[in-house]
């Protein structure tokens, strides 16, 4: 029997999206408070990414020993409490240390939460991940919106991070309630044979990483871009990530029907083209103004919304979801730091050419490796995404 009910799992996804929005929506204010600049901020994001990636195997072993349910119930509140670390930082080095702790906790939580969802999906034989990802982005919208409101009311980023982190930790604990235990045994995913399988999995991983780089650019750099390049206020700057998440959420909840109509390959091709259009608006926003940037981030969010669900479904058909996830998450975590390095070497608008180029890669590279009419779950139609 599944020991973490689906409704609780859904709330965990929502709360996790909210948690990550606290970090992304307050990053511009933290940058301004500490006077970091793109280069030092990029090192913070890189350290956070490396800590998260390094935690992946440890989290997997913890889940194997104690069960994904018990592990995620421990990791989630710990990640929420770690959100207070950046608020307490007083300079670049202290923020760097806090980011390492936050990255490690967040990486463990994300890995085990995903594992818990996959186990639940396979145990019930019903698709869950499309809705779960939609709830994650819905939580991001709520979190970013709450930060925007708090800024309008005069709250500082430090108070928002501390209060938000502690509140979310309490909610994780309260929602889960007593208990824990191991996940029930589920059948392993099918493994396809063929000499091209490894190449397909690597390409799928790169495509997933490309989508995550676009998401990371919105989460970590959209607000900074609006504040430092366009001269927007902190409230308007945090709105950039909010509109991105709103568009992504809407498309994810409606994405299964779209995929059923267009098929996997055409869906991702359209997604890449849409993201290209949105990021082009963002790149042109220094001439067009802040509204153009907000519209551009919204269009980009709509574009990348279904890339990862479709890619992960194809990876599940190949029996290579763990490998594809590792490539995708690793590349996605490193992407915002790479943007920071490019911004330091050139400018932030030039650095945002990277996610735009990766949107082109998505549109061109995904269709040849996607197989229409296949799903990652036994007996489930291809319209459902398995992540």
From TrEMBL:
Q: Does the keyword Cytoplasm apply?
A: no
Q: Which GO terms describe its cellular component?
A: membrane
UniProt name for this protein: MFS transporter
Species source reads Actinorhabdospora filicis
| Annotated membrane topology | Multi-pass membrane protein
Q: Which UniProt keywords apply?
A: Membrane, Transmembrane, Transmembrane helix
Q: Where in the cell is it found?
A: Membrane
User: What SUPFAM superfamilies would the database entry show?
Assistant: MFS general substrate transporter
The keyword Transferase appears for this protein: no
Q: What InterPro entries is this protein classified in? A: MFS_trans_sf, MFS_Transporter
Q: What is its main location?
A: membrane
TM ranges are 44-64, 71-89, 95-115, 135-153, 159-180, 201-223, 235-255, 267-288, 294-314, 326-343, 349-370
């Amino acid at each position: 029997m599944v020991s973490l009910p689906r409704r609780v799992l859904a709330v965990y996804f929502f709360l996790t999206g909210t948690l990550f929005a606290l970090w992304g929506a307050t990053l511009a204010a933290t940058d301004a408070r500490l006077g970091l600049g793109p280069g030092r901020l990029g090192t913070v994001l890189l350290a956070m990414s490396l800590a998260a990636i390094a935690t992946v195997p440890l989290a997997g072993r913890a889940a194997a020993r104690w069960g994904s349910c018990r592990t995620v119930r421990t990791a989630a509140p710990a990640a929420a409490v770690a959100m207070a670390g950046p608020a307490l930082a007083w300079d670049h080095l202290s923020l760097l240390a806090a980011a390492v702790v936050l990255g490690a906790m967040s990486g463990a939580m994300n890995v085990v939460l995903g594992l818990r969802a996959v186990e639940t999906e396979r145990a019930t034989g019903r698709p869950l991940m499309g809705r779960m990802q939609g709830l994650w982005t819905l939580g991001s919208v709520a979190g970013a919106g709450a930060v925007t409101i708090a800024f309008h009311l005069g709250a500082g980023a430090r108070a928002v991070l501390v209060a938000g982190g502690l509140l979310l930790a309490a909610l994780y604990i309260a929602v889960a309630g007593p208990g824990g235990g191991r996940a029930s045994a589920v059948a392993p995913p099918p493994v396809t044979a063929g000499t091209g399988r490894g190449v397909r999995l690597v390409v799928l991983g790169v495509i997933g990483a490309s989508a995550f780089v676009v998401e990371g650019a919105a989460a970590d750099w959209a607000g900074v871009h609006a504040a430092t390049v366009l001269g927007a206020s902190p409230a308007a700057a945090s709105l950039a990530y909010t509109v991105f998440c709103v568009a992504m959420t809407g498309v994810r909840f409606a994405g299964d029907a779209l995929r059923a109509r267009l098929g996997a390959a055409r869906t991702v091709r359209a997604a890449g083209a849409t993201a290209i259009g949105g990021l082009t608006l963002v790149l042109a926003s220094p001439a067009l103004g802040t509204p153009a940037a907000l519209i551009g981030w919204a269009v980009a969010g709509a574009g990348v919304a279904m890339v990862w669900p479709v890619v992960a479904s194809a990876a599940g058909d190949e029996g290579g979801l763990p490998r594809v996830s590792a490539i995708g998450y690793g590349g996605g975590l490193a992407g915002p730091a790479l943007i920071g390095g490019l911004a330091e070497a050139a400018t932030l608008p030039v650095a945002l050419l990277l996610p735009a180029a990766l949107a082109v890669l998505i549109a061109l590279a995904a269709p040849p490796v996607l197989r229409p009419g296949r799903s990652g779950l036994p007996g489930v139609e291809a319209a459902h995404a398995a992540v």
